[in-house]
Amino acid sequence: MNERTDMTDDRTEGAEGPVWIADDDRSIRWVLEKALTRAGITVRAFDRGDAVLRALEDGAEAPLVLVSDVRMPGISGTDLLTKVAEAHPEMPVIIMTAFSDLESAVTAFRGGAFEYLAKPFDIEGAVELIRRAMAEGRRRRPTGRPAEAGAAAPAAPASKPTTKASADRSSTPAWSDDMVGAAPAMQELYRAIGRLAKSTATVLITGESGVGKEVVAREIWRHSPRSHRPYVAINMAAIPKELLESELFGHEKGAFTGAVATHQGRFEQARGGTIFLDEIGDMPMELQTRLLRVLSSGSFYRVGGRELLTADVRVLAATNRDLEAMVAEGRFREDLYHRLHVIRLRIPPLRERREDVAPLCRHFLTAGAARFGVEPRVLTPEALAKLEAFPFPGNVRQLENICRWLLVMAPSIEVRPEDLPPEVLEGDALLGHAAPAPSTSGALKTPGAVPAGYASAPEASTSEGAAAPSGDWCAVLRTEVGKRWDAMRASGDGDGLLWDALIDDFERTVILEALRRTRGRRLEAAAHLGLGRNTLSRKIRELGLEPWGRD
């Protein structure tokens, strides 16, 4: 069967379209046909990509939109995309795939795809996406394009020189070297990187420590028009303040004591390529002014130099800090923030994509085994369940280290729960170690009591804490207020103390959770809470939370 046969008529009076669907999966074709027909959209379906090309060659009316799977018998979806872009550049093409990885997304967008749709997908969302593509198709058609636009139909995108790596990945879906995951949050990230593949825009990458911000930066560079030019990375937090200016912009001989020769800075080294400014939130204020000047004018001077140099670089920046809060506090220049914040990519923490723990483990265990010259380890379902439940305060970096630990320390090929490293096993114990809940009879609150579910030492503040009660938290609060109110009235104790006790409980809970999530770092916790460090330290003392947190 080459063409659709399960629908009696591919035309409906008054319908929009047509939309063509190419997928060798009969169930996908059936679901999309039914949904689009109900939406009043004319549909024609094919089970092979070459059947689509034959229909176009035979003079069939070209569709407004083509929806194509990647893997089909005969011609692939990506090859079909290329041929359709050459013959019908005005036609939006939506690529579908069950093998959702970065390379597939980049290939699709570089080939000119309108959108990248990962299977399984929400059918209502897919219909809405197709409607958007139809509107774009009508706009692109010569008869539907506004006269004032006067633009020619977009040309097929220029093909990127094929490297061995890309050639190896073109035939079968594969993970990128370090980017592994198929969670919805990762799909959004893949789409963003795919759209950036033809751009040189400045990108600000945000996310917690250990999520892989530098990995994402490398992938943006690797898939960019500047991939044949240098990639230079510099960590702002790792270089002393006194040396950072010279590292970034270089210096002339004799510019300062010890400058015995002219030195090229990172911006010169990255000429024509990409510079990655990691931990940009740690950049000293005085250097922020110089960086702003480079971004705005595209030029700079070496330290002690008089020659104006051109900064022909693409800038990628990353931070785990809240730059908006730093701007509000006067610790980061607002104009620099807006210069960096052209495109923003947020890397999700591992706890937001727990379904990726299993493929990440397979990836790290396989790669680590080859690196260390040992046999790969295999996780039992019970061991995997333990890891999937672990909060991973160190994110993907911590998981990679755990896998390396297992390759060296696990006694057998099969990894059981008891073989997991102490940080995972002790994490369970710490989560289960709770202080007794405060009594609602008699005194309302014991001063300094730690709420149940929290460990009693800052070293244990590496988990996310106990799960919050389900439902509306305000309803839970009302219930608690009622219990304490009744207890107070019944006992005759605590008159006039209910408000203060509740406020103390609220502040104690919020502060402890902030310290957990920042692994006890008071400065970082204060920044996220919108408090000054001194204020936070004072509240920790007043609430009896010492020795939680550290400066």
Provide structural commentary.
There is one protein chain. This protein has 551 residues and is α/β, with parallel strands linked by helices. The chain folds into 4 domains: 16-140, Response regulator (Rossmann fold); 184-253 and 263-346, Rossmann fold (3-Layer(aba) Sandwich); 354-432, Helicase, Ruva Protein, domain 3, CATH 1.10.8.60; 458-542, Homeodomain-like (Arc Repressor Mutant, subunit A), CATH 1.10.10.60. 43% of the residues lie in helices and 11% in strands. Helix 2 (49-57) packs parallel to helix 3 (77-87) and helix 14 (357-372) crosses helix 16 (395-409). The chain is globular. The termini are far apart.
CATH homology superfamily of the largest domain: P-loop containing nucleotide triphosphate hydrolases
How many domains, as an integer?
A: 4
| Beta strand % | 5-15%
What structural class do the secondary elements suggest? alpha/beta
The residue fraction in helices comes out at: 40-55%
- CATH-defined fold name of the largest domain: Rossmann fold
Extended strand count: 14
Number of helices: 21
Low-confidence stretches: 1-15, 144-177, 429-471
Average pLDDT for all residues: 77
| Approximate shape | globular
How many angstroms separate the termini? Answer: 69 Å
Q: Give me the side-by-side strand order of the main sheet.
A: 2-1-3-4-5
Largest sheet: 5 strands, parallel
